[in-house]
Batch of 3 targets.
Target 1
Amino acid sequence: MTAKSIRVTIATNPVAKGRPRVAFRNGKIWSYNPHKTENAQNFIMERLMRHKDKCFAKNVPVKLTLVFYRIKSKSLPKRETLPFRKPDLDNFAKLVCDAINGILIVDDAQITTMILRKRWANDGKGHIAIKLEGDRNGIPAKS
């Protein structure tokens, strides 16, 4: 029997999760997420909904692998082979973790292992590669 695995590729240039903003209007404090963050998260969630039936159960530890393929600006030097500039890799991951929560996994607390990569898109088209699988680390093998 093979272990359960979900692989999804989302055709979008990756967006980092922005910090929540606070505004003071009509004597009240309002907090909100930046529109770019909301739009990107909603886009990812819409694409993941078709995989909802494959959701991992609540009691299953999950290993998450994310590869963010970014579009390289023509102003950057050709010798720059990896996208080491901002935005930060962990902010890309936060957005995807929030998007998969309740769709591919019941709770993002189930994620026990993460492998993250930020790369240039060779074809000039940004996308996000998502792979979820059961995390067997720490679970004794059956004899």
Target 2
Amino acid sequence: MTAPPADLETPCLLLDRARLERNCARMKAKMATLGLALRPHIKTAKCVEVAALACDAGRRLTVSTIAEARFFAARGFANIVYAVGLVPAKVGPLREIALDNGARIAGIVDTAAAAEAVAAAAAAMDFELPLYIEIDTGDGRGGVLPDAPELEAIAAILATCDGVAPAGVLTHAGQSYRCHGVDEVRAVAETERDGVTAAAARLRAAGFACPEVSAGSTPTATHAESGDGLTEMRPGVYVFGDLDQMALGSCRYDDIAVTVLASVIGHNRQQGHLLIDAGGLALSKDISAGEFLDRVGYGWLADIDSDRAAPIENLYVAGVSQEHGIVRGKDGGAVDFDRYPVGSRLRVIPNHVCMTAAAYDRYHVLTGNSVETWSRAVGWY
């Protein structure tokens, strides 16, 4: 990675284009091996240029906000799944986005009551909205269980009510983020596939259409050994990687494409720490990688002029307040204040890049000796 220009204001997001392209190519190849379509979840990247690199020829996307749906539909991505439980108030914006851009926008539901309410709202607008039934394959966040009696009741609503149409079944193995080791991830991937394909088979046996069977998280997409019965997968964070994904075995350290550029703004010699201008807002307060890695805190650090073959061994972001990051030595080691004078700059490698990137409206993309600026979709609406 080229060292960032000296005039970049901090904190800011740096994106290594070469690493991004490698990550995207690797996932496309994996999906091709499994015989599945790739529908990247763009909630992490929120960026058209990243989406163009991540998508296969179908240019399918998954989004998590109305703002993302609007942003990407307006830029030619015409097959979008809004993968958050749908309520009637959001039917109107989705209708507007679909009609304005000639796009297919689909939603998800996991109860008969939600399906009926969404159908009524869409029918009142003379609109037909494709809906997936969300299936819970072990994450426990949302979705109907594959063997639950309500599954067929939801399917009947989608098949018979004006305003909606059956799109298939969809699941997300969020529990893969709590796995310890690749073998556990592979087991979760099989559980995910088994559950969602069982739901699809049950619907088809009952005479209901189930065109698509959609699964996927970055860990399960990376390590799945079979795609039998699925039609697509929806990984997202793989485009960038982070310390959490590295610890899960979903990427290597040198695959991590996004870092936060921060400035050293103070030396607290009495307390023995550096201060940087990347705090809780710039880095997020997600410490998920701490479940797997020692002394990770709110992120590891790297010098700006290195190729980041390894992090700075003895430093980590030990604490944050809103706009301050506290950098300490690992295991109580001393900080070399002379090596990091006030005004010098460091890269922070994020724990969970989805949360870290959310605070920013752009990437500074490093490509060879050049720097580009790529915009991000922001907000919810």
Target 3
Amino acid sequence: MKATLRNGFTLVELLVVMAIIGLLIALLLPAVQAAREAARQTQCKNHLRQLGVALLNYETAHGRLPPSAVVDLSVTSTSNNGSWGVHGRILPYLEEVNLGRRVDLQTAWDFQQAIHGVRVGVFQCPSDPESRRMRDPGSGKVSLYATNYGFNFGTWFVFNPATGNAGDGPFYPNSFLRLAQCEDGTSHTMAAAEVKAWTPYMRNGGPVSMDIPNSVEAAVKQIAAGAQHKTTGHTEWPDGRVHHTGFTATLTPNTFVPFDMGGRTVDADYNSWQEGKNGAAGAATYAMITSRSFHPGVVHVAMLDASARAVADQTDLAVWRAMATRDDGDLIRGK
């Protein structure tokens, strides 16, 4: 009786096939991930362009750029500012006309149900895993999604309510600047840059020094002066304060600023005093709100001419600060 021959794989052949398939997957996965990240970066830059165009349309309609907040300097005692920031003021120019009509910019945003649980996609970067995490502040206030784009508050000093003096960026309380007042030119001055949602920060302690920190070590000393630690930076897009809707060019993009917060080392920001808190009796605001992103090696920014570009982490600090100032005369060529 003849033996029956069976066609099939030997164990060795099967292992070889599996090894080849594994190798192909190992080669393809990085390419797929890179393609996805490239698509996310394109979408992120498009969001920033839309913000830039909205600012220009706002300026055309009102003759001025929107302020970061409106602060009544005749008031000497208030626990909260509540003033709408740039994000809320440009809603009608972001294809959010209906939402823009439903909000009242003359009334504090905290309890306006029109924005409760509303996610404005153009405010969020697709690469930030925390961008879709909603914040519920309690006390009957509205719940909000985070924002990944902060408007440019300059380099360090933001605002002094006692004197009305303000910093060197195009946005600060009661600013209402004309584009012509950004004398360095719209193509040389940043309008907005990426920030990370749910950033830890310290606030309300006053600066160790009014001099701008020029190193991470100096930055950590400033942060240590804060009286309150929070983990909710960039989680309230309607709020006009710098730690929620802004950034400063104190440090270069994606600089890691280690700070021990409750026994955990975090990458921290700093605001010496909340703008508008206690009105004219409040302290001056100095802020170190670093531009950060989840894109490897870069952050994306929008210029005041509505162009968008990637800025490398290794950018020289002097160049980065010059891009943040509106009228220091230091033009950045070739950017």
